[in-house]
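Contributing new complexes? Match this layout with inosinic acid.
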Amino acid sequence: MQDAWYDADIERVIVNEEQIQDKTDELAAQIAADYASVDHLLLICVLKGAVMFTADFARALGRQGIPVDLEFMAASSYGQGTTSSGVVRILKDLDRDVAGRHVLVVEDIVDSGLTLSWLLKYLESRSAASVEVVTLLRKPGAMRSAPPLKYVGFDIPTEFVVGYGLDYAERYREVPYVGVLKPEVYTRPKL
Ligand code: IMP
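Output block (do not edit by hand):
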């Protein structure tokens, strides 16, 4: 098989495909047990970064016997760069009412937690019955400022990572693992 185009741009793999798969199954089993009495959990996928994790996580919950509804939201706190601006914009709102629903927000990564804090307040203001968060990745900054996270996949260092939904300038989302880019990638002219 040909090498994937992105492998040459990755300096280091932080979480590999097998680790992601195992952790997804583990989180799904835990959440299935916690929500055993809930009828139709509502998963809210935070676009675009959480798209891969949500797709795999929803199927893992299905294997655990938990039916879910899926909703999508897009909120942005990052521009083209690699540090949080703290400014949250709604790019895509929910299609359905969340009032009275048990909501599980599916996140790719919690860094400062600014985006998430804002999102949780927003969902609570819409009278969800309960709101919890499952995030695949957490950075150390989240310990200080982020809202409490009940379900966390991996704690990773404070480094900018790409893959499994996470991008740098909209690229590398399709990389099946999470990794750090080579420094020269950042100095290349943008396409
Ligand atoms: P926060 O508001 O600082 O927690 O940032 C949340 C959002 O920033 C995430 O949902 C990602 O979209 C993006 N983000 C944070 N860290 C990274 C990273 O290392 N790589 C790519 N995107 C990131």
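Reviewers usually confirm one structural detail per submission. For this one: The mean pLDDT is 91.
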